[in-house]
Amino acid sequence: QVQLVESGGGLVQAGGSLRLSCAASGRTFSTYAMAWFRQAPGKEREFVAAINWSGGITYYSDSVKGRSTISRDNAKNTVYLQMNTLKPEDTAVYYCAAGALDYGGSYTPSYWGQGTQVTVSS
Question: Rounded CA gap, 102 and 111, in Å?
Fold first, then answer.
């Protein structure tokens, strides 16, 4: 069992930056690939970024590629999402997930956090 708690969301102007954090409980954090998803009002939850257990492999959606960086600190049981040059269309609830990542970049979540709101004003 893994419990995930996101933080770092908030209101930011377009062009600004935010760093989201996700703290995980349990001693098995380093065995999971981690990911961020987001869900905007009226839309389905979508993949944002994923990172393998060691941090050596990352994947990004086209919508955030080049503007965001996913990273992890296994000593702190924490995964991060640094988002730069934010746009109003980045407005969503951002969810952290623990799960599995295959060699093709497909991510399967097993556990979810409760989400953190990111609002980007124009």
Answer: 17
Residue from 81, 83, 78, 84 nearest 98 by CA? 78
- Give yes or no for a contact between 37 and 51, defined as CB atoms under 8 angstroms apart: no
Over residues 24-58, the pLDDT tens digits come to 997 789 999 999 999 999 999 999 999 999 999 99
Asked if pLDDT for residue 104 goes beyond 90, the answer is: no
Token readout for 12 is 């930011």
* Beta bridge pairs of residue 59: 50
H or E segment to which residue 13 belongs:
strand 10-13
Quote the tokens at residue 35. 């990911």
pLDDT band, very low/low/confident/very high, at 97 (cuts 50, 70, 90): very high
Dig out the tokens for 39 from the structure. Answer: 């869900």
Please give the Cα distance from 70 to 121 (Å, whole number): 23
